[in-house]
Design brief:
Rhopdopsin 7-helix transmembrane proteins; Heat Shock Protein 90; 2 domains; two-stranded antiparallel ribbon; 11% strand
Length: 429
């Protein structure tokens, strides 16, 4: 084999290895942008297959064995195929980034890229039956025919279209992403020009994979910024939780309750002291947590809180527990905040005398489900979208912490006068 073959083979095998490593890295961090991660993983896998195909085409070039005969033909076809496929996959990923940042629902230029991919694939299939793009000589060596420039023209067209879209929406990208996008779109075009001017020197596929790797680096940079913002938001939320959970009026009301019980029901007073102590201990421990906690600990805190509220308001609050699943973790105070809202805004806001709270947990499909339902006042859920509404800020903040800390979601069903049902879904992975 020639030195050029060894150079191409070595570079492309390393490129395939880097793509594979990148796939694992994106898969691990996929929770912060699941849709974008999926698109990038598919793109990286395509780039890896492109590298493997092209490396095999180079290493077996000139091999006249029967195996070499088939490997060279299959690998060359695959190299062209995955090269064409890279264009719409890049368009899908960039379209997702732009839509995510700008709020534009859809960018239809990606369908043009899919059309170009279909045209390129059709030409490759046609070339199998009537050689007009490329062929192989008696030494099993690839050579370009009269229409051999067509694949380069298709790739050049696709990249130019994508470049135009990126330049139109580049304001929605950060500095590193701008550099990565421009490099992605410039390097392949330079490689196409070099290959056109110097036949036999092909760095087009290498440039595509290098540019794809730059998109991966851009993704990791975006993930780093996400983590920074996440830590900032969680730090702010911890300060808010300190103020919320250790509320002077709750402490005063509970102490008043215990004083009353000491005079009239000493045994119940002792139980109330134990429950109040457990609640304060749980709050103190949770405020030192920076990660999710076992569901059992969260539910213990909720039970302490409900016991004290039931002692305060008597039979006007009834609780129904149906705990079937505790083998998961939740952000601290996630369930407690929702239960507190149910009592404070659902049952006590209108002095409901037959208040009922149902607390259920179960495993269903790929999720751990927590349901908190009350028969209280209910409310218009459109108010949750209004950040100026402070009555339900606890639900909004809990939803954000669930998203940041464990990829969880909150679904709220409520109608004025018909109670509220809050469903928390936490992915099992």
């Amino acid at each position: 084999m020639s030195t050029l073959q060894y150079i191409h083979f070595s570079i492309e095998i390393w490129g395939a290895l880097f793509c594979l490593i990148s796939v694992f890295s994106v898969f691990i961090t996929r929770h912060f942008d699941l849709k974008g991660a999926r698109k990038l993983i598919v793109l990286l896998l395509c780039a890896m297959l492109l590298m493997v195909s092209d490396s095999l085409a180079w290493i077996f070039r000139g091999n006249i064995s029967e195996a070499g005969y088939y490997i060279v033909r299959i690998s060359n076809f695959c190299a062209f195929f995955f090269g064409f496929l890279t264009m719409p996959l890049v368009a899908e990923y960039i379209s997702h980034l732009i839509s995510k940042r700008s709020g534009i629902p859809g960018l239809y230029w990606k369908y043009i890229e899919w059309i170009l991919f279909a045209v390129g694939t059709a030409l490759l299939v046609a070339n199998l039956f009537n050689k007009f793009i490329y062929s192989f000589d008696a030494r099993n060596t690839y050579y370009r025919l009269g229409y051999g420039i067509l694949p380069g023209c298709i790739a050049f067209t696709g990249i130019i279209i994508t470049l135009g879209v990126v330049l139109q929406y580049i304001g929605y990208m950060n500095k590193f992403e701008k550099a990565a996008m421009i490099m992605f779109l410039v390097l392949p075009n330079v490689a196409v020009i070099i290959q056109t001017m110097h036949y036999g020197v092909s760095f087009t596929n290498i440039s595509l994979v290098l540019s794809t790797f730059l998109l991966f680096v851009s993704y990791e940079f975006d993930y780093m910024e996400f983590n920074t913002e996440k830590e900032r938001k969680l730090a702010e939320e911890r300060i808010r939780l300190i103020n919320q959970q250790v509320q002077p009026h709750f402490i005063f009301n509970t102490l008043s309750l215990i004083r009353h019980l000491c005079k009239n029901a000493p045994d119940e007073a002792a139980d109330a002291v134990n429950e109040f102590s457990g609640y304060l201990r749980g709050c103190t421990d949770f405020l030192n947590e920076t990660d999710c906690i076992p569901a059992e600990r969260e539910l213990d805190l909720v039970k302490h809180y409900i016991y004290l509220e039931q002692k305060r308001f008597g039979k006007s609050i009834t609780v129904d527990y149906d705990i079937d699943d505790t083998g998961f973790s939740v952000p601290p105070f996630a369930v407690q905040t929702i239960v507190e809202n149910a009592i404070k805004h659902g049952l006590r806001s209108q002095n409901i005398t037959n208040g009922l709270i149902s607390l259920r947990t179960r495993a269903e499909g790929g999720y751990h489900i927590i349901e908190i339902e009350d028969n209280g006042a209910g409310f218009d859920t459109d108010k949750l979208k209004d950040s100026t509404q402070t009555a339900h800020v606890g639900i909004r903040n809990t939803a954000e912490r669930l998203r940041l800390m464990c990829g969880g979601t909150i679904d709220v069903h409520s109608e004025p006068g018909n109670g509220t049902k809050v469903t928390i879904k936490i992915p099992k992975d």
